[in-house]
Each structure stands twice: as C-alpha cells, then as structure tokens.
Amino acid sequence: MKKIxxxxxxxxxxxxxxxxxxxxxxxxxTYNAEFKMLWADFxxxxxxxxxxxxxxxxxxxxxxxxxxxxxGEVFVSGFLxxxxxxxxxxxxxxxxxxxxxxxxxxxxxxxxxNIDKMxxxxxxxxxxxxxxxxxxxxxx
Length: 140
Fold this sequence. Notes:
It is a single chain. By secondary structure, the chain is an alpha+beta fold. The protein has one domain (22-128): Alpha-Beta Plaits. The chain is 33% helix and 22% strand. It has five helices and six strands, in the order αβααββαββαβ. Strands 1, 2, 3, 4, 5 and 6 form a six-stranded mixed sheet that branches. The longest helix is centred in the N-terminal third of the chain and has 16 residues, at 2-17.
C-alpha cells in the first residue's frame, strides 16, 4: 500500500510541475529559412509557458520577423503550399485567413499564438515567410 501511495504522490507532483513541451515542426512539411528562424525564436520565447492563449510576442520578435499588429493581436503572414487534403475550413477554424493564388498556393495570415496549430494542419506541404525588403532606390 505504501508503494502505491508513493507512486501516486510522485505522479501527482510530476503533473503539477510539468511544463508545456517544446513544439517540434512536423517532418512532412518543408519550411524556408525565414520561417525556421521565426519558429526557433517563437519556441525560445514560449518554452516555459503552459498555454499560448494569452501569449504576446516580444517587440524584438515582432520587429525581427516582420509581424504585424492589428486589433490587439499579432499576426504572422506568408505563403502556404498545400496538397489536395488541405482544408480551408480547418485553417480558418484556428483564426487563419487565406487568399488563394491557384494550384493549391495561398498567402496566409494567422495570429502568432496559433502558429503551433497551423504547422499541424493537415494538407500543408510547405510554409514560407519573408521579411520586408528595404529598397534604397537612387533618384534620377
């Protein structure tokens, strides 16, 4: 009986101090370098958080990855390349917005706090994000 009580106590203590695990990128999807850098910084910022529900990214993350603020939310945008199994409704259910460019190619916008759900969305084969280019055009 003491062994069972001891095991239950250990399990309860472990559950109480458990932290949210590091989210890994699915292997069946490819990503460009910009998205991988965004992901690494996102994971670093959120690794000790139990929930992303109230997550607000740092100003450094917003600036370095060209994220946008609107109505109190921070958004990431980019390109999605999908398969025939991709469901627009599934993507929209996690508060994502899409513009279809044909042949299963979309631009997307999604709250940064839902990016972990986006990478798990069925039917995505590639995700790309970009930074704005600062063009310095010489005036003639």
